Amino acid sequence: MEARNCQAKNRIIIGQIIMILVLIFITPPIQATIVDTPLSKLTQAEKFFLLGKYKQSIDVYKNYIYSSQNKEVLTYNIGYISYLQDNIDSAEHYCDQALHHNPDYGPALLLKGLIAQKFSKPKSKDYFEESIKHHPEVELPLFYLGKYYYENGEFDQAYKYLNRAINTNDKFSSPYSLLGKALSKMGNNQKAIDKLENGLEVSYDAKILATLIELYQETSQIQKAKKYSGLFKFLFPAHPLVDQLIKKYPESNFKMGFEKLPERDISSNDFLPVGEKRMYNVSLGPLKVGELYTAIQDSLVFNDKEVYQVRFSLDSNPDLAFAAVLHSDYISYIDKYTKQVELHYLHTYEDDKIWDKIYEFDRDKHKFLCRTVHENGHIDIIEKYLPQNAIDGTSILFYARQVVREKRSERVMTIIDENFVISDINFPDKKEVVKVREKEEECIMISGTNHYKGIVGFTGDFRGWFRDNETLLPVTSDFKIWVGRIKVTMASEEEQKLHKYAR
What is the pTM of this model? Predict the structure, then answer.
């Protein structure tokens, strides 16, 4: 009997190896250049998930289960992907397996609640409450519990949990729309409007903006309703609500400083040199706090568009680990001619947290997707309606070169932490002499303002200087942060060779 069991196990293991080899060598190639990188240690299943290859991801996860020490994570991941594909029977089966391996597994408890909610089962509330005790991102079950109470007409309870979700994570924008609606149902319209206006400071989400317009209408603040309807029509021109807003406020054209982008094509906009690599020192006063590295790595075709593959890395000074530890690598595909991002990969180590993300910009369907693999391997996804002309916050460094080339100022919708926030880039048509690698050089200057808190606290106003030649290479800049000003200067050739802070 023991020998037969051993033989059966061997057959299972051999079968798993064969399946993995089939997946690796026979499956058509994935967009490997953006996730197959030594910058991180993703499994094949995680790569497939990040790239939206859900079937392949499930197949590989299934073959990992037998040998895994974290069976609750893998079975949850299969269940979660099945849920995304609306395969509810499979989702529930694997979710139950995850909870069998670990009854207190927070993500699986949340998924169990979502499945129950899909069928309007009251039991969903119990799963959400239990998930709050165990979920590593507690704002998620708090949000879904608040949503449960809102949909069941218990608006005071909905407000309680939605507000807790925001207080738990002040960058989490999903609760704001429902929070405003709950306050309105409770008869507190002004507080609802205040909360929604605060929500816009976090993110210009379509849901937040639409709910705010609705409440302005209900409270007879017609000028504000008209004004923000114009902004909504500009940011989300293909949204289902736009036709309704056009009929109601046909003359509204408020755009809050945003403008339609100029036509950009091959004739003048393919100018970034493939192979360019530059490192910059990041300093706070006399103290070097980190190194910034940028590279234009390749030129390729993605989704029938010609794109550059660019890299942006930020590493904190290891000697300052007592204050903060930061290592971030970002790889983006940016359109050669518009310099807008098409796909963006993030690998981030920040203090005690590690995660990998893909930002997918589906501009044809006006959809923004963020897929995340967390440090322990569990996955999740955020989906939002994509404002037109949005760009991610690291690719804006390359986008600024486009703006300088066109000698124009621009208000840019910038994606930071999955939120839509505002950056202003001002082109004053001015040159200044600055030091570049200890030599004085006359460079083109820009200024601007970030209306958000960004990487390592970048916020407020900034200035940047670009080499006055065809490539418009950034040579130095300074940014306001909450403790002073950060200066970013091109490193010497020797420092660039060493790149000593690289992880």
Answer: 0.89
